[in-house]
Design brief:
This protein is α+β, with helices and mostly antiparallel strands. It has helices spanning 18-44, 50-66, 81-86, 94-100, 110-131, 166-171, 192-204, 267-277, 319-328, 334-341, 347-359, 375-387, 403-414, 471-477, 523-562, 564-575, 579-598; strands spanning 137-146, 149-155, 208-213, 220-228, 233-242, 249-257, 282-286, 294-296, 418-423, 427-429, 432-442, 453-458, 461-463, 487-488, 494-495, 498-506. The protein has four domains: 96-296, Heat Shock Protein 90, CATH 3.30.565.10; 314-387, Helicase, Ruva Protein, domain 3; 403-544, Ribosomal Protein S5, domain 2 (2-Layer Sandwich), CATH 3.30.230; 547-598, no CATH class. Mean pLDDT is 88; it is low at 1-16, 35-57 and 60-64. It binds adenosine-5'-triphosphate and magnesium ion (MG).
């Protein structure tokens, strides 16, 4: 919309003196500057309010002309403005921030909110069980209170949680045991379950109910909890000791505004995938309206290899962090600091790093106190670390699914004709060890004309949203499927009776956001994913080529077989055979053909 022009007063012809001319020019200049200001203001205004504004602007323009000066024309702020503005500065509580930006945590629609809550509860239960070396036996109920109001009840047989920790775990954001631990876990951020509880209370007004029991010898503790969002602190509304019929574990109950849906992004599909990536899981699931629970039976009774916690690798540390660590360490020498705070650093490695510092212009004495290392020296030390060859971090902090179990899970879920699984060797991005696995299920019941079904996993957790934004999808799309006898349109997923599973296991999965929906596009990660997919793809190609060769040979043989009686007659005529000899020859020919078919 063009800005409304203020009509220019026609100057009287009679007033043709010099003064009048000057006045006209001056007022035109003023008007043009007003128009410009308005045009700029229009850029930021709501287009719907422009009509209304145009009318009121006429009236206002008269007033403005009378009033002293427009604020934009002032070159000096009024005394005390900064002080007045300073009174408006406030701390922002993390819970208030995430309550406003709930979409960042996956609560952007009622359907997603329900799924996110289930996911956070399942992740925590599985993590807790594995950490305590307990085979997970979980119970999940999603109960419809109204169409857009559901209750989630999640119970696990984990180690339980001590009374003191319960309020903070469930009603304080950024509180947890996994953020600082450098080992593979489903949870990372210390936000998940408390954010779900906060969302539930915000949308339904109902508090969370937590029951936890740490041993058969102790009673279960029941807490009714809400969160004080301004302070990001828990508020215990009620506390009881109660009787439960289970020995140890935790039960979480959250009421929330959420809608239950079927389909690709449903809780049911999520649980199918959880079972796929967690073959050791036993789960009983009662969906809304169902009287009979769905049972997911475990495929194996052995728990995944427990991941060990590791120290950071020196190659992954950034300069600022290195400086902070030098300040905070309890070590008395740089050499002690390096060996104590990082993995794969020995005295020999420290010597090499020190030698490198010499090449960078200043040898840093590794016997110095870490606190006395200046910013300039820290920079040299950081560069020297980067230039020194250091063994890759240990990989016992990772717990991949493994080729065998991945294969079993894929067979159970799809009953395909062929399953191929690949587990790559662990490698490192930004000092974080990670490992990629890929699985392909081909044929069977899988639909032949559709795009491949993609199953993305990060630390055994299915990723259901933002497929297009995920590094896994990128790696699949950018693999040369046509070389593997699979159709693929340019820039698209491959087409065929094909399900592709990709799992990244890492001590820190780089998600694109806090809602943990998609993996970020780190070059090292993309490369590993493509290598895993290509390795599986090559094996698929071998199978498909062999299958095609056999089919071709079959076709040829069937063709020849139709002419065996004619060949028999021709041979009888040429060689003067009896009818019996002709039949024997025909049988022999059919036999030879049959034997070559079996070869
Ligand atoms: N069912 C449970 N049993 C035992 N401990 C639990 C359970 N649920 C949560 N916890 C503990 O509470 C902590 C906080 O859980 P929360 O889901 O908020 O964060 P997180 O799992 O650490 O990270 P993320 O935000 O990525 O989920 C966890 O780190 C874990 O130590
Ligand atoms: Mg969690």
């Amino acid at each position: 919309m063009s800005p409304k022009k203020t009509p220019v007063k026609k100057s009287s012809k009679k007033k043709s003196s010099k003064k009048a001319k000057k006045n006209t020019q001056k007022s035109a200049r003023k008007k043009s500057s007003r128009t410009k200001t308005r045009r700029q203001a229009d850029l930021f205004s709501d287009p719907r309010s422009k009509k209304k504004d145009a009318g009121s602007r006429k009236k206002a323009s008269k007033k403005t002309r009378k009033s002293s000066k427009a604020p934009s024309a002032r070159s000096q702020p009024v005394d005390g403005t900064a002080e007045k503005l300073a009174t408006k500065q406030k701390d922002i509580s993390v819970s208030e921030f995430f309550a406003k930006n709930r979409h960042l945590l996956g609560f952007d629609s009622p359907a997603r909110a329900l799924l996110t809550t289930v996911r956070e509860a399942i992740d925590n239960s599985l993590d807790a069980c594995e950490e305590a070396s307990i085979l997970p036996d979980l119970f999940l109920e999603v109960k419809a209170i109204a169409v857009d109001h559901h209750r989630i009840i999640m119970r696990d047989n984990g180690p339980g949680i001590v009374r003191d920790q319960l309020p903070r775990i469930f009603a304080r954001l950024l509180y947890g045991s996994k953020f600082h631990a450098r080992k593979q876990t489903r949870g990372q951020q210390g936000i998940g379950i408390s954010a779900a509880g906060m969302y539930g209370t915000l949308t339904t007004g109902k508090p969370m109910r937590i029951v936890s029991r740490t041993s058969r010898r102790k009673p279960a503790i029941e807490l009714i909890l809400t969160m004080d969002m301004a302070k990001n602190q828990p508020v215990v509304r009620k506390e009881n000791e109660i009787d439960v019929d289970w020995g140890h574990g935790t039960e979480v109950q959250i009421d929330l505004e959420g809608t239950y849906k079927k389909g690709k992004h449903s809780i049911d599909s999520f649980l199918d995938q959880v079972a796929l990536a967690n073959p050791h899981l036993q789960l009983e699931y009662l969906s809304p309206g169902d009287k009979k629970p769905t049972i997911y039976n475990r495929v194996t009774k052995s728990l995944p290899e427990p991941p060990m916690e590791i120290l950071p690798h020196p190659h992954g540390v950034e300069l600022g962090l290195l400086m902070q660590m030098l300040k905070d360490t309890s070590a008395r020498t740089v050499s002690g600091f390096m060996c104590q705070e990082f993995c794969r650093v020995t005295q020999n490695v420290v010597r090499k790093i020190s030698d490198e510092t010499e090449g960078l212009g200043r040898r840093i004495d590794t016997n110095r106190h870490p606190g006395r290392i200046s910013a300039k020296d820290a920079k040299i030390l950081h560069k020297a670390i980067a230039q020194t060859r250091i063994m890759a971090p240990p990989t016992n902090c990772l717990s991949p699914i493994g080729e065998d179990l991945m294969s079993k899970s894929l067979r159970r879920n799809f009953e395909p004709e062929l399953v191929i699984t690949v587990t790559r060797q662990p490698t490192v991005y930004r000092g974080n060890p990670f490992q990629v696995e890929a699985g392909i299920a081909w044929g069977g019941e899988l639909p032949g004309d559709d795009l491949a079904s993609i199953f993305r996993f990060a630390n055994r957790v299915p990723l259901q949203y933002e497929q297009g934004a995920c590094a896994i999808t990128n790696a699949i799309v950018n693999s040369p499927w046509r070389n593997y006898e699979v159709q693929q349109a340019r820039g698209a997923l491959p087409t065929g009776p094909l399900a592709i599973l990709v799992h990244i296991a890492s001590v820190w999965v780089p998600f694109t956001s806090e809602s943990k929906k998609a993996v970020a596009h780190y070059e090292e990660i993309l490369k590993e994913m493509r290598l895993a997919i290509m390795e599986a793809g090559r094996k698929l190609a071998t199978h498909l080529r062999r299958k095609r060769r056999i089919a071709d040979a079959e076709r040829k043989k069937d063709y020849i077989k139709t002419y065996i009686p004619q060949i028999g007659i021709a041979l009888q005529n040429i060689l003067d055979l009896s009818d019996r000899q002709r039949t024997t020859t025909e049988n022999k020919l059919a036999d030879v053909l049959e034997r070559s078919r079996k070869m």
